[in-house]
Amino acid sequence: MPYKLIAIDVDDTLLNDELQVTARTKQALQQAIEQGVTVTLATGRMYASAQNIARQIELNVPIITYQGSLVKTLLDGQVIYERYVPTEAAKKLYEYCEAKGLHLQLYVDDVLYVKEENDKIAGYSRLSKIPYVVAPNFADLVLQPQMKMLIIDEPELLDKVAVELKALIGDIAHITKSKPHFLEIMHKEGTKGHALAFLASHIGCTLEEAIGIGDSWNDHEMLEMAGLGVAMGNALPSLKEIANYVTRSNNEDGVAHVIEKFVLGQED
Fold first, then answer.
1. Dihedral, CA atoms, 246, 217, 58, 256, nearest 10 degrees?
2. Which of 9, 11, 215, 253 does the annotation list as catalytic?
3. Which end of the chain is more exposed for a tag (fewer CB within 10 A), N or C?
4. What is the pLDDT along the chain (268 residues), one digit of tens a residue?
5. How many CB atoms lie within 10 A of CB 18?
6. Distance CA 48, CA 62 (A)
7. For residue 242, which phi and psi values (nearest 5 degrees)?
8. pLDDT attached to residue 268
């Protein structure tokens, strides 16, 4: 089947461990685009962060950001899909984090806010290449529309937090891990799977004609939704189990390999 849409996760998927898109991968992406395939990003990153990467690889299509809570065009910045964390869930999450002394980040109008300066936000900012604002009115910002909310801590602690939050707000919010030490909270329809389905409809193709490529559990809805769900060689074992195909790792041009094999018809 000719594929018409490719949605690619960014960290540990499109980017190698040096946070670069290799020349081979760029070439494969460009060749797919020249064949009329819509190539997009599907990332938990903010739009401000994702657009920098999208421009590096010369995309000019809507990109999926905030885990799927926001789909926005690159050329004119038009929002075509958005889902906000329900206010009730945001308030309960804030109160929970305050009681537990957890580091919480807010995302309002594509600006990253924190309550205080610490190593967690400093490291996150370096990774995402995005500045942040220490907000004296942090509690008030919680009531503003949030694309997502993010807790940073040790993986084992976050596993316990996720269980408690699912009991607290799991009926009205989507909770997932993007990295072992990042726990993210979105609207129930703020997933990469929902966004992929919307984008496929928007460009006029079926989900069977879509490829989804990722490495973490927050990619599973996208892989399950796509006609060809691809897990990276460095992906979580649980993601590999549900994938239709397992490619090479992010340090071995795994994305390029998928495009060359399934879109360009090249065998290496």
1. -10
2. 9
3. C
4. 799 999 999 999 999 999 999 999 999 999 999 999 999 999 999 998 899 999 989 888 999 999 999 999 988 899 999 999 999 999 999 999 999 999 999 999 999 999 999 999 999 999 888 999 999 999 999 999 999 999 999 999 999 999 999 999 999 999 999 889 999 999 999 999 999 999 999 999 999 999 999 999 999 999 999 999 999 999 999 999 999 999 999 999 999 999 999 999 987 6
5. 7
6. 13
7. -95, -5
8. 65
> What is the DSSP code (8-state) at residue 209?
G
Residue keyed to tokens 């997502």 = 148
User: How far lies 156's CA from each of 89, 97, 235, 258, in Å?
Assistant: 23, 16, 19, 33
Q: Which CATH architecture has domain 5-82+190-262?
A: 3-Layer(aba) Sandwich (3.40)
Q: Are the C-beta atoms of 46 and 72 separated by less than 8 Å? A: no
Report phi then psi at 205, rounded to 5: -130, 165
> For the domain 87-185, what is the CATH code?
3.30.1240.10
* Alpha carbon separation from 44 to 31, 55, 152 (Å, rounded): 26, 17, 14
Give, as one character, the DSSP assignment of residue 252.
Answer: T
N-terminal to C-terminal alpha carbon distance within the chain:
20
The predicted pLDDT at position 60 comes to 86
Let me know if 159 is a catalytic residue.
Answer: no
pLDDT tens, residue by residue, 79-138: 999 999 999 999 999 999 999 999 999 999 999 999 999 999 999 999 888 999 999 999
Query: Which residues are CB-neighbours of 141 under 8 A, at least 6 positions away?
Result: 106, 108, 113, 135
pTM of the model: 0.93
Domain range summary for the chain, segments of one domain joined by +: 5-82+190-262, 87-185
Length of the chain: 268
